[in-house]
Amino acid sequence: MTNRIEYLVELGKRLKNSPAVQEDIITASHKNPWFTPQFVQIAIDAIAGEMLTEEKLKQWLSRYDMHEVNKTVGLVFAGNIPLVGFHDFLCCYVAGCKMKIKLSSKDDTLFNPVMDLLFEIDPGAKAQVEIVETLKDFDAVIATGSDNTNRHFEYYFRKYPKILRKNRNAVAILTGEEKPEQLDLLADDIFLYFGFGCRNVSKLFVPVGYDITTLFPHFEKYKWLHQHGKYMNNYDYNRTLLLLNKTPHLSNDYIMLQESDTIPSPISTLYYQFWHDERVLNTLLKQNAEKIQCIVSAQPERWPFPSSVAFGQAQHPELWDYADGVDTLQFLLGL
Question: What is the DSSP letter of 49?
Fold first, then answer.
């Protein structure tokens, strides 16, 4: 285990300085326009600087009775944000599992060069990792997809130990007492990766009487989205629907704010809902727990939710902040 930690720390160092990875960032952005070089770099920096450090890895693994897991795990990666499946790989790697990985066609450019770097550091890891087109001959599976895809996963993987993940989103709770710099950070929670991540804020809970238009200036650093073709196609389509249906909303050139009691919002649209009673809001959050990945606020300790984080931290989870609240590493160690 000590060797694997050392290998991962070295991988983090090389990710920061690899010319090959930089080339693949450009290749990935050409293949998938949603993977802009800026956003891919942010994803890689988060992996290298926040996951692959000796301190964080030791802190994470100290929570477990670590042992070698002599099992083969099928991994189905989503393609919503760059390298979104890396944490599942990481769990399997430290547990010693063999992996059969089905990459998403939306994100099949970045993972291989990362693995090439690891194989240079740890040649033995080659025996653990196999990229496949079709999953077969495995003992357990971890799969991430949409709600529709998940129905197929439930049937196809019904006989196996499994972790299956559906659509989730983050929500943000405002009290009206936030500092300007906190609302600037909220913009990152909303706009990073165009809002495609399960930890992206898709809905705001704001106090009754809150002037929602005061948020627009805090979104300014993402006004460049107005120049992104695919994003603006979504914006134009969704705004046309709102206009045709005469649905009240507020907008600038790149985001629409719409009052709604729904949590997941379309790309380029941010929902909001007014609240006045904290007990009622807590009940509402608990009722929608299966739709919420994390809660963003100025006071994370105030809200009764396992994954409650400060503004700007939604896309910077700790190694022990597991998707859907399911402990992936403990699942593997129990196989």
Answer: I
Give me the domains of the chain, ranges plus CATH numbers: 2-166 (3.40.605.10), 169-310 (3.40.309.10)
For the record, the structure tokens of 212 come out as 């929602």
Please state, in angstroms and rounded to a whole number, the distance separating the CA atoms of residues 177 and 200.
22
The H or E element that residue 308 is part of is strand 308-310
100: nearest Cα among 88, 84, 87: 88
- Global confidence as pTM: 0.95
C-alpha separations of 85 from 156, 172, 201, 213, 246 in Å: 20, 24, 20, 36, 40
**Structure tokens belonging to residue 130:** 């196999």
Model pLDDT for residues 23-80, shown as the tens digit of each residue = 999 999 999 999 999 999 999 999 999 999 999 999 999 999 999 999 999 999 999 9
Residues 262-297 pLDDT 10s = 999 999 999 999 999 999 999 999 999 999 999 999
Q: What are phi and psi of 208, to 5 degrees?
A: -55, 135
Classified as helix, coil or strand, 144 is: strand
In 74-228, alpha helices (H): 86-95, 111-121, 147-156, 180-191
Three-state DSSP at 166 gives coil
Query: What DSSP state is assigned to residue 34?
Result: T
Contact yes or no for 68/185 (Cβ under 8 A):
no
Centre a 10 Å sphere on the Cβ of residue 26 and count the other Cβ atoms it contains: 12
Please name the helix (run of DSSP H) or strand (run of DSSP E) that holds residue 315, with its range, or none. none
Alpha-carbon gap, residue 28 to 108, rounded angstroms: 8
Are the beta carbons of 57 and 319 closer than 8 angstroms? yes
Q: Who's near 152: CB < 8 A, 6+ residues apart?
A: none
> SS3 of 31, please?
helix
Residue tagged 């983050």 (tokens) = 170
